[in-house]
Amino acid sequence: MEDIFADVASKRPPRKKQKIARTCMICIGDIDIRTPCPSCLGLYCSSCLQDMFTAAVKDQTRFPVRCCGLIQIHHVLPELDTGVAKAYRVAFENWMTANKLYCPKPTCSAFIPEPVQADGFSCPKCEARVCTKCLKQEHIGARCDTSEEDKIMAIISEFGYKKCPCCGQGVKKMFGCPHV
Q1: Cα distance between residue 26 and residue 42, in whole Å
Q2: Element (H, E) at 122
Q3: Measured between alpha carbons, how far is 120 from 139 in angstroms, rounded to an integer?
Q4: What is the sign, positive or negative, of the torsion defined by CA atoms of 160, 164, 170, 176?
Q5: C-beta neighbour count of 88 within 10 angstroms
Q6: Is 93 within 8 Å of 113 (Cβ atoms)?
Q7: HSE of 98 in the Cβ direction (CA atoms, 13 Å)?
Q8: pLDDT tens per residue, range 15-50
Q9: Where are the alpha helices (DSSP H) in 18-177?
Q10: What is the pLDDT of residues 107-125, one digit of tens each?
Q11: Cα–Cα distances in Å, from 158 out to 26, 148, 165, 179?
Q12: Cα 73 from chain centre
């Protein structure tokens, strides 16, 4: 009996792997399964994925891209244009950086990843040199201008605020433990 089943199975042509058509969770269009959301197995078409990642780059409130959980870029990289993928990686690095630094040149204002050099660094977009002490445009031979920061500190202390050591914002203790 087993010989009959083995004989029939050997004569049957091998099954072809078929792409299963499903619908996109956003536009409800038919798509071929590529990479579902790892958490809920939800599917998106290339166009909707592109739009989601582009919107996240333009609007920080949509960042990072989510379904029921975080959609990691390496899962959907084949579906994204290289320009969108690069812009998303830069935006992700910006989002993850605690002490954000932007180019001091008003016409540029590009995000600068944490600098490595101690003696000064350049903006990756416009290549303007930046002073590491005051984080303004480099001023070789001149001292850093702290008059603006001095004015801000005077206003902060006038109203009874202190400068937060972590974020640098003016904060005032309203209530709570006197040891803080």
Answers
A1: 10
A2: strand 121-122
A3: 10
A4: negative
A5: 23
A6: yes
A7: 3
A8: 555 455 578 888 888 876 666 676 777 788 888 888
A9: 46-58, 73-76, 82-96, 147-158
A10: 988 888 776 566 677 888 8
A11: 53, 16, 18, 22
A12: 10
How many Cβ atoms are within 10 Å of 107's Cβ, its own excluded? 7
Query: What does the alpha-carbon distance between residue 161 and residue 154 come to, in Å, rounded to a whole number?
Result: 10
- Which domains, from first to last, does the chain contain? 20-96 (3.30.40.10)
Token representation of residue 134: 């005051």
Structure tokens at 45: 């078409």
d(CA 88, CA 73) in angstroms, rounded, equals: 8
User: What is the reported pTM?
Assistant: 0.56
Q: Tell me which residue of 95, 130, 99 sits closest to 114, measured CA to CA.
A: 99
Scan for tokens 């416009």, then name that residue. 126
> What does DSSP say about strands 170-171 and 162-163: parallel, antiparallel, or unpaired?
antiparallel
